[in-house]
Amino acid sequence: DRGDARCKQISMRMDRGGQVGANKAASHKVGNVNELPDGLLTKEHVFELPLDYSSPDKETIQVFCRELCLVKNKDKSDMPALVYLQGGPGFPAGRPMSANSGWMKRALEEYRVFLLDQRGTGRSTAVTHETLAALGSAEAQAQHIGLMRADNIIRDCETIRRTVVGKDSKWAALGQSFGGFCLLTYLSMAPESLQYALFTGGLAPVDP
């Protein structure tokens, strides 16, 4: 039936990219740790990940992620984690300077929050008109842009989750606008990795 066919399509997509987010090329570095006003602590993470997960031993890109927590909670290693997938596509995650506003205020009371600069944006390896022009043909440019889609964003998330939260640990996810579409992809590719999923827009029609 249609449900079985959809599951087979998802399985085929995952097989082409290997186990979701699994690769030998990944590396992780921790950058600056900063204490900001209002008791907000930030920690920078930089991951070296495959550009193309079907060829993990070839070209790599950097993916940047900023971890936030309250200073009062910095020694609570068992706090649950929440990853935020921002709107776009093409926009980096926000750069909060305070823990006292918006949804972040509530989330930080209970979670470590991870703000992902999705591949191609922000402090991750950039995709710009200059970098695309350097690829030459329109076909090469289109192929490169195709590697920035939601499926590879989720493969990045899975590598990051296993590194910062733990291989067998789940995290929650919040998807805003385009981030909501990414989160639907996450639910298709690796639902077992999510404690739960929160949507603020970006929810496509889902067949019953």
Provide a concise account of the structure shown.
By secondary structure, the protein is of the alpha/beta class. The chain has 6 helices and 7 strands. Strands 1-2-3-5-4-6-7 form a 7-stranded mixed sheet, sandwiched between helices.
Write the layout of secondary structure elements.
Elements: H1 2-16, E1 27-36, E2 40-50, E3 60-70, E4 81-85, H2 102-108, E5 112-117, H3 129-133, H4 138-146, H5 150-164, E6 171-176, H6 178-189, E7 194-200
Parallel strand pairs: 4-5, 4-6, 6-7
Antiparallel strand pairs: 1-2, 2-3, 3-5
Helix pairs in contact: 5-6
Order of strands, main sheet, comes to 1-2-3-5-4-6-7
- Backbone shape: globular
Structural class: alpha/beta
Q: With helices defined by DSSP (H or I, 4 residues minimum), what is the helix count?
A: 6
What kind of sheet is the major sheet? 7 strands, mixed
| Secondary-structure element order, N to C | HEEEEHEHHHEHE
Beta-strand fraction estimate: 25-35%
How widely separated are the two ends? 13 Å
Number of strands: 7
What is the alpha-carbon Rg in Å?
17 Å
Low-confidence stretches: 1-18
Overall pLDDT metric: 86
Percent helix range? 25-40%
